[in-house]
Amino acid sequence: MSLLTIMPSGKTITAGEGMTLLAAILAADEALTHKCNGNAACGTCHVYVQEGRKGLSRIAKEENEKLDAIVGVGSKSRLACQAKILGTEDIKVELLGFGSGF
Ligand code: FES
């Protein structure tokens, strides 16, 4: 289990191993656009992982390619639908609140 803190609301939830960041964020009743329903195809679920990046699954080729096409991507960027919680570290994510996937 990892403690997931969601910014800017500051809401925290516990998230189980194997859960995607997207599923955990939605389970916390936070809004996060996910137009392609988690297929690494739209980029609308782009978030910044502020802490605990090692507690997430590695970035696979599909996610990397999609991130490359998004404006505003930085070293903390992940697609929430592709990042799986490993349960090894607590994580803090920042929801971006704008359509970064377009
Ligand atoms: S929901 Fe479309 S890329 Fe994550």
TrEMBL record:
SUPFAM superfamilies: 2Fe-2S ferredoxin-like. Its cofactor is [2Fe-2S] cluster. GO terms for biological process: P450-containing electron transport chain. Residues 2-99 form the 2Fe-2S ferredoxin-type domain. It comes from the Bacteria. Coiled coil: none annotated. GO terms for molecular function: 2 iron, 2 sulfur cluster binding; electron transfer activity; metal ion binding. Keywords: 2Fe-2S, Iron, Iron-sulfur, Metal-binding. Belongs to the adrenodoxin/putidaredoxin family. This is 2Fe-2S ferredoxin. It comes from Nitrospirillum iridis.
